[in-house]
């Protein structure tokens, strides 16, 4: 349903020369560490909230309920809004801070936001590690949220702008890869610290300072993106960095694209207002609203947040629950490598649509088994428990090569330079709003809807797959400053998109 690529200047990226240089690799690895902050928190939070020592100190009512084995507590053992606020407060803070990050990213560069994010995340980790009451926990989570708001705003943009068009998909997915590695490492950490009584949970939360420190130190040596330097009027420096990261002197064609985009960007004084213009309607609806919201409505982050909690609720012991979480997070890492290998070959749309079918099937099987065999005060048999773990792994794998990485890659590609930082802030804010909402509502929904929560996710995945099929054009291997031209041939978006850019 999507229109094909329209050649711009006769290039389609064909005249953009590049080599993979050590300078380019270093810059991308350091920037991608921003994903490890996000991932470590995703992985560590669910594990900590299932640890008895943590619950005894801060949520004794939940701890007592957890020890009971009444029929009505099968789905409802962890239904506590303050406990879920511990998780979701981070995402509400990130939602607000990303708008400040937009200003820093546009005026001071992507590197500036990355540095601010690492410092804030470090402070939050220290607060959480030494917390003695719920207020300290929440304050720490707010600092972590500010760090994630800045990091998630800047890192996907940084990677997309640094990457050559032909491998942009794989390079951008370094963010998702480090996110998944952060989740996996956090689950290993939780598995070990769960055996350290009574302060193991403090070690889990405090170790978040490690990736933040690495990101800050690496960020000192991080180059700014050529796109950002040109946007700031630093043309000579922008060309010099472009030559260095491409490893060639002949960057005339690519630099000409940057200059053209920069001229339009400097004419925009109100980038957020510009997002509302009809010519930016496809970027707003697809990249700014649809994809970041749907990424969370898949239900994946609920599984990541609460995997140990879910497995315990389904009858797994504490150690077995954390071990099962390690299995699912390992699947997520493997799936990300799969996505990196094929995204620039098969394209974004193929991965979205294939994964949609796989995720729907997994959710339906989960719902059927839970409806027939669970919730009567009896633990699931070993056979059914294994099937549940397999279905969750299939769901995680599908997400890991589709909505996980593509939920950050595609929006970072769609916006033209003049609205890119504002657009990415909208992406992050919408993403974090739905992340927080799902985090806050999932356990109470699990309690009241029971197996129906998985049927709800299946229905939502069907809707979002149709959204992709009808509205998203294929962006693989298209130069980032030329992607806006795709909408001129799209069956729907061509009604809104003109040939020029109107400054606001």
Automatic annotation (TrEMBL):
State the annotated membrane topology for this chain: Multi-pass membrane protein
Q: Which domain of life is it from?
A: Eukaryota
Compartmental location:
Membrane
Q: Name one GO cellular component term.
A: membrane
- Identify the Pfam families for this entry: Sugar_tr
The UniProt transmembrane annotation reads 20-40, 82-101, 113-132, 138-159, 171-189, 201-222, 320-343, 349-372, 384-402, 422-444, 451-472
* Domain Major facilitator superfamily (MFS) profile: residue ranges: 27-476
Q: Which InterPro entries match?
A: MFS_dom, MFS_STP/MST-like_plant, MFS_sugar_transport-like, MFS_trans_sf, STP/PLT_plant, Sugar/inositol_transpt, Sugar_transporter_CS
Q: Which CDD domains match?
A: MFS_STP
In which family does this protein belong, per the annotation?
Answer: Belongs to the major facilitator superfamily. Sugar transporter (TC 2.A.1.1) family.
> Which named protein is this?
Major facilitator superfamily (MFS) profile domain-containing protein
Organism, by scientific name, is Papaver somniferum
